[in-house]
Amino acid sequence: RVTLHYVVVRPLFSEDSFAEQHERINRTRKTLRHHLKDYFTCDTNRAKNAARSLLPIIGWIKNYNIKEWLLGDIVSGISTGLVAVLQGLAFSLLASLPPGYGLYTAFFPAIIYFFLGTSRHLSVGAFPILSLMVGAVVTRLVPDGGPPANITGFEGLSMEQQRVLVASSVTFVMGAFQLIMGLLQVGFIVMYLSETLVSGFTTAAAVHILVSQLRFVLGLDFPGVNGPLAIVYTLENVFSDITNTNVADLVTSIVIMALVLIVKEINDRFKSKLPVPIPIEVIVTVIACGVSYAFNFEKRFNVVVVGEMVDGYESPIAPNLEVIKESAVEAFPMAIVGFAVAFSVAKVYSVKHDYTIDGNQELLAFGVSNMFGASFRSFAASTALSRTAIQESTGGKTQIAGVLSAMMVLIVIVAVGFLLEPLPRSVLGALVIVNLKGMLMQFRELPFLWKNDRTDFVTWVVTFVASLFLGLDLGLAVGLGAELFTVVCRTQFPRCSLLANITGTDIYRDRKDYNSIYEPEGVKIFKIPSPIFFANIDFFRDKLVQAVGFSPLKVLKKRNKALRKIRKMLRNGELEISDVNWNTELPANISVPPVNIHSLVLDFSAVSFLDISALKGLKATLKEFLRIEVDVYIVSCDVYIMEKLHQCSFFDDEIKTSIFYPTLHDAMLHILEKHPDHGELEKVFTVICKLSRL
């Protein structure tokens, strides 16, 4: 293998000499006033761009390739629509609503997203975790086993109507939060939800969903529970009532789950050979409906069925203001979770198919979709991973497939919904549980996290446990707090190190990691790999003292005390010396801590910012070293940090700009010129000096 070499002959630069030889462009930075002026200035081009941004359909519909895309969108729309119908029915149970209302969630938001969304593959509709979070609000305000909350607007409504009103109202305020965040351009907020946090949260949510469906799978009848420790109370109800299990429901559920799991495995293994995945959920639902109707499961085996379906569309309703007040705190995490999941899924498919998505526009799209859908009695919409995967894998190219999927739901709502009335609810519960497989399998991430990143492991476990026992809304808040705490810890307590020169190179690495290193006598190179700010400046100083082996402040105090004693002895004629050398043996048993370095180099290559508190602490630390005759050099400092140092009067008679060097090697060559060491680096320096004279 040929080894490549590079040779650069240039002067040795400090920051001062570099600035003298290379003039920097003086750029004018925009102020907040300029940014606001640009933002609110409008012209023809900007109006067109704004229209395309707010209505992304304008951009892609004119480029729609009918010959190549239409057939795939039709097949995808039909396939996804069938699944959307079943998931809408099933996820309604999670929201503690009659099954038919899930069909509204599969229709209205999808229509609005068609015009406003930027993802071409997202299947918009019910999402199990959001449905469960809506269900928690619904059962809190309209519980199964007690009177509803004292809310104006509940008068004269049945329990079912009260629950629908609560679900639509909390969905409306959730959409309002998303719309406001979109208008404020805060789509970046999703970045604070790491994959680790989302994994722990969704796994806990999957366990919640699994437990909540046990009463349908087992055919038990007990009131739903919400709030902290709800999962414990639900399991207590299940086990205390398990002797009343409906055998027909249990057998049906087991058969359904076994069949669906087997066929899904076949779909995964032979997806390259199958033109479309086998729609096993649709097949088993049709069979279950037929068998239930033929053998009259409802009366013969006391099986709870879907019952009367919604017949067409109901008139729009306004959200209830009292419900909004009661549920606003829970609606905000729902808005974040719904957007975070949808954006994450959309990003995967946008990368795969080479197009861009806009996070802020996605917030607007989901905000308007949820607010519009809530007016027509739908509940919280986002996306379901399995449904989106079907839409993409069956040939979907654009949101035409999403609209066709909504049309399939429309047909069920207005024409054939009555055919689903004999469907046992245990079948829907079984389908929900089967679709949790992907989320529950996230437990497999734990060994990898434990082995490779203990901090992320802690974040995952804390988020999971908090979400499991405190509820999803509080659990998300605790998980986010734990995640931010780990970030603070990583920046507050970074892994500082002492560097050494790799022999024969201009490369410097941690001295503990290499054998072939060169360390000039009397020089310490200290690196802090994080920003320096108010929370870690003391840690930085402590680590620096630990690295050099002495405290400059203590040495300075000892020296001052020794000087006073020496002056007193000189006045009394007890001592005759002309100069004090602190590194030699001092007279009259005077003891001062030794200082075995003459130069300290601080590598700032990983320091991205300094705040005022850190700046003052750094200045005090540098002066302490300079006053005990240790030269301090700062290398690879960001130019904007340099500007801030100048603005904040960091430099004075003691701390000068000449201590700053553009690279670590420049500083080391300067030190070796000032303090010859006759080592390997000194030989390199000598060669460079000779070359520079040629």
UniProtKB/TrEMBL annotation:
Q: Does the keyword Transmembrane apply?
A: yes
Give the UniProt subcellular location, in the record's own words: Membrane
Task: Answer whether the UniProt record assigns the keyword Glycoprotein to this protein.
Answer: no
Q: Which GO terms describe its cellular component?
A: membrane
| Listed transmembrane segments | 70-95, 101-117, 124-143, 163-184, 196-218, 238-262, 274-295, 331-351, 363-380, 400-420, 427-445, 457-485
Chief place where the protein resides: membrane
Entry protein name: Solute carrier family 26 member 3
